[in-house]
Amino acid sequence: MAVLYTHARLATLDPALAGLGLVESGAVLVEDGRIAYAGPAAQAPDGEETVDLGGRLVTPGLVDCHTHLVHGGHRAREFEMRLVGESYEAIARAGGGIVASLQATNALDVAGLVAATLPRLDALLCEGVTTIEVKSGYGLTIEGEIAMLRAARALAGSRPVRVKTSYLAAHAVPPAYKGRSTAYLDEVVLPGLERAAREGLVDAVDGFCEGIAFSPAEIARVFDKAVSLGLPVKLHAEQLSHLGGAALVASYGGLSADHLEYLDEAGAHAMADAGTVAVLLPGAFYAIHETRRPPVDLLRAAGVTIALATDCNPGTSPLTSLLLTMNMGATLFGLTVEECLAGVTREGARALGLLGETGTLERGKAADMAVWDVETPAELVYRMGFNPLHARIHAGRMERRRPSFAAMEEGAR
Ligand code: DI6
Ligand code: FE
Fold it and tell me: Is the overall model pTM greater than 0.85, yes or no?
């Protein structure tokens, strides 16, 4: 059935239009879950049904292109340690950090991981997210990584959301392989990738290239395996130090290099040449009290496109709000409103290799949209801790957000 959404102000993010691609008196025709028309209402074809959006703002459904949403437990204790001055690196070297989440994650089976993850997923969906990326990386055994990826895949069966998975066994060297990272790569990371790929669980391959994790040479071995399996790559790069990870992932034509606080000029140019997206993660910057900002001016000057994501993880970014992420991107990193909104829609989709499918309001794409009770797009970026979502549309299916307190009151009666 063809549904015409009328009386809408569109921020299409269509790259053919200037800025946010605003259409003041707009309409969107949705047919079979896809956008059949998005543009001025005056030229819109008729639908079999019409939904009046009351002049609200419509954006593409939001894309969270970097998350570790599937995990067990929490690391609130490390948060308290950072409050009294311990650094993330020092905590990690003392046995905290990523390996601290191993036990809590591996204690859960796939159903348990899904159950632990759904409240975090729901928080994202309530803010208009229609696509997420989810990484493994807290199993660090073949079975553990596979269970995380199965849980990530299962999320799409539990909620109306598109899920892309990334294999991140090269996240940390687990205690069982302490001081033996080569053996960990040979016995777990590489054979685990082969198996996960064979089982259809992997959409991309990620790594953590850092002094406390893996060297560029080690990451290159993982990427070579990814290439041999026909999988795209991406990388946590230059977050705590400059190791050249951004140039490395660009040399593989990678989808994205993520974090980038310590990115240099050569890395930025390599990314621009390869079309590798810069995924900035202000939640992690904020939570670990980082003071060095990613070089946004350098990215702009080099012509690197910028995406923004939550990096939702139990250690360095316990953040489940893309709205707050945008606010942090603007306030902490100096991004414009336009860069923030593009970063959680069009550029997030680009960072996942999904630009043909979602991320803008353009004919032929999936009908993924967010409908907002705001007057201007800037309101989505400027508020902190307020959610103006009116409705979310995923693949043409619309769900209205319930005003939460009213719903609670009703439930109490
Ligand atoms: N993303 C990551 O994967 C690492 N840092 C980051 O921002 C570590 C996450 C963790 O400490 O669990
Ligand atoms: Fe991360």
Answer: yes
